[in-house]
Design brief:
CATH superfamily of the domain at 9-147 and 173-199 and 250-260: Vaccinia Virus protein VP39
CATH class of the domain at 9-147 and 173-199 and 250-260: Alpha Beta
CATH topology of the domain at 9-147 and 173-199 and 250-260: Rossmann fold
CATH architecture of the domain at 9-147 and 173-199 and 250-260: 3-Layer(aba) Sandwich
Distance between the termini: 31 Å
Number of strands: 7
Order of helices and strands: HEHEHEEHEHHEHHHE
Helix content: 25-40%
Shape: globular
Length: 267
């Protein structure tokens, strides 16, 4: 049962969130295999912190794992539950704030932070909570999709940030992984980085423009600002790439980093 806490910006985009953020075929299954592969336990208890609509979590549900998904957005969790139920696979989900998890200490063998660290403003608090509910011999798994530095999405993001700065809106395209993951490496007993899936993806400028309104930070901007920014971005993309429908084939992947901690490591 999902207990409501209140509204989240993600609630308004839950039904369309996955449409523009699909992982490659087989990627969720490969992620599950890698997460479970390093555990000696036959049935580890897993917490997926920031489970969203279950893009990754549904593979664990389908596998019959002892899985709990948590997210601040009730709308995203309802979408997760709906899709899991369509396949006859009830999911154990809970609405909760990652900085104040509704679980006792040392509850889980594995805590997953998939596509979460990069946008976390209070990442130290988030990680401290993740470690609080992690059992002494458990593992923290941080995962994210990797796209080309010079790919179409990267170039569109850079231009979007430039347009926002130009009209006095601070860029919201932050990525705290570059700080959080090295810090985790410094306190971990062991750290293992694994590329678990790779796939080809076709991208166009138009897809990026269509995806932006479903982004939580972008959707929070005033309507006149969003319209102005998208108009400027579309004009730049048309001039730069020749067409909004110009196609670019890119190589994408999904990377996991698995952390184990010594007793008493700083949180």
């Amino acid at each position: 049962m999902i207990q409501p806490l209140g509204m989240s910006h993600y609630d308004t985009v839950a039904t369309s969130f996955d449409q523009y953020r699909a992982l490659g075929d087989g990627a969720p299954i490969a992620i599950r295999a890698a997460v479970l592969g390093g555990m000696a336990l036959s049935s580890p208890r897993l917490l997926d912190l920031g489970a969203g609509t279950g893009r990754i979590g549904r593979a664990f549900v389908a596998g019959g794992d002892d899985y709990v998904g948590v997210d601040l957005s009730l709308g995203m969790l309802r979408e997760f539950a709906r899709r899991a139920a369509e396949n006859g696979q009830p999911a154990h989900l809970a609405q909760g704030d990652g900085e104040r998890l509704p679980f006792r200490d040392a509850t889980f063998d594995i805590v997953m932070l998939m596509q979460v660290i990069g946008a976390a403003r209070h990442w130290r608090v988030l990680i401290a909570e993740a470690r609080r509910v992690l059992r002494p011999l458990g593992v923290l798994v941080v995962g994210h999709a990797v796209t080309p530095d010079e790919g179409i999405d990267a170039r569109m993001k850079q231009r979007l940030a430039s347009i926002l700065r130009g009209i006095g809106v601070p860029s919201y395209h932050m990525d705290t992984r570059g700080v959080a993951q090295p810090w985790l490496e410094s306190i971990a007993h062991t750290s293992t980085r694994i590329t678990v899936a790779e796939w080809s993806a076709e991208r166009t400028p138009r897809q990026f423009l269509e995806r932006q309104p479903t982004g939580v930070r972008f959707s929070a901007l005033p309507e006149p600002v969003k319209e102005q920014v998208l108009r400027k971005l579309a004009a730049w993309a048309s001039e730069t790439f020749g067409s909004l429908d110009a196609k670019f084939s890119e190589r994408h992947s999904f990377e996991l980093q698995v952390f184990k901690f010594p007793p008493g490591a700083d949180s």
